[in-house]
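go over my protein:
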Amino acid sequence: MFLCFDCSFNGYCRKRETKEVTPEELRSSGFVRQVRQTALDLGIESANWHEALCDMYRDYPGRIVNASGEEVFLDMEVFETPNIRTWFRDFCCRPCPNSTSPRIRQESQERVRVLATILRASFPVKASTWDMKTANDNRPPKVE
């Protein structure tokens, strides 16, 4: 993405914003399922997820904002834990079975929020459909 002179001086586009993921969104199993599917579709191995997330966040040419429109900075320290590769393997590298309703453990809430916010910023078109139900089920109309 090319930036105008003013934005290139700042290093980011002041008009490009992504809202951070809210706790309400994380309570939706459909939302969590789509975040996991987006992560799985990227095909990143568990050993490379931490670096990939840092790169996506660093390279995002906009701002992350909260519900009030104020700029926020994501705490990447939540991924600085022992055995984080195992967590990435389980959350990002394995499909979520249709027979289960995904949930997020309390200890992982912030980690998932940061991951989902970075994915939303990096893939805004795909993220715009997270937790949406399609209106067309591809069935012919009933004839009466």
Summary: Residues 12-127 form one domain. Helices lie at 5-10, 23-26, 29-41, 49-59, 84-92, 109-122, 124-127. The chain has one domain: 12-127.
